[in-house]
Specification:
mainly alpha, single chain, 3-stranded antiparallel sheet, about 60% helix
């Protein structure tokens, strides 16, 4: 399958996509236009059900009075846009909220939420815990270190797993002054931003998934869930090795920066 879209990093989501999407498509089911409501319905279907064709989506939404072909055409126009009097209107695929995937040898495309689309939906429409659980199961291979271990993590940390909502609001990315300086969040959360700072405009989806996963496990430190984090690491060697490697990358970075400052000290000693 080939995905026709690209992502920026979490900072790109925070400062560009999130406010743009909220402006275009709303951040509540209340007071929205018919167009916004239709898009919100499409995002909801993809959020809860995962990958599907526009026909699948139409069948999901269908009511007794609906014409399924008409509904399918509506979803297709919402997702990929339309041409009208020689002008093209953009769809949510162009915005980066939804990914279109073409199967080789198949005449149809399937759609799913992008990682940014998942975060936007969580932020704007406040899905229930059950809906988030359903989403995590459908998108387990997209963010495997979090969604792929959702049941295991939930068993250890309980309802705090839904703190993913905090990330969806764009918190604790560049505003690390909110951190408690008595734990490693300040430096580690800053390093998450530093590590991916060159990927503001484009990032591979698996790397964006890693950035979110680093945020998720680091946020457990902020919440003083150190024992819970230790338990999760003990249960999964691959997660422990992956996160330990990240910790060492961060310490190496700060040690090198401090070494550079120390070497530059003589400049100020001359003043």
């Amino acid at each position: 399958m080939t995905a026709y879209n690209s992502h920026g990093n979490l900072m790109s989501y925070k400062v560009y996509l999130r406010p743009t999407a909220r402006s275009l498509y709303g951040h509540s089911a209340m007071g929205c236009t018919t167009h916004q409501k239709n898009i919100q319905d499409a995002l909801h279907i993809l959020f809860v059900n995962g990958v599907g064709t526009t026909w699948d989506m139409a069948k999901t939404r269908r009511r007794k009075t609906d014409n399924i072909r008409v509904q399918e055409k509506i979803f297709r126009r919402l997702l990929i846009g339309r041409y009208d009097r020689g002008r093209r209107s953009k769809g949510v695929v162009d915005m980066g909220l939804v990914l279109r995937e073409k199967h080789t040898g198949k005449p149809y495309s399937v759609y799913r939420l992008s990682i940014h689309g998942i975060l936007y939906y969580i932020d704007a429409f406040e899905p229930t815990h059950r809906e988030i659980d359903s989403m995590a199961s459908k998108y387990s291979i997209i963010i495997p270190k979090v969604f792929g271990r959702w049941a295991q993590i939930k068993k250890v940390i309980g309802p705090d797993i839904y703190n993913i909502k905090i990330l969806a609001r764009g918190l604790y990315l560049n505003n690390t002054n909110m951190a408690n300086k008595n734990n490693p969040l300040y430096e580690l959360m800053s390093y998450i931003h530093i590590k991916y700072r060159r990927n503001f405009e484009i990032i591979r989806e698996e790397n964006l998934a890693d950035q979110i996963s680093y945020w998720f496990y680091t946020f457990l430190l902020y919440e003083n869930k150190i024992n819970e984090l230790r338990e999760l690491m003990a249960q999964d060697d691959s997660i422990r090795e992956w996160y330990t490697s990240f910790f060492h990358q961060a310490t190496d970075y700060y040690e090198k920066r401090m070494s550079t400052l120390n070497r530059s000290r003589y400049i100020f000693e001359q003043w």
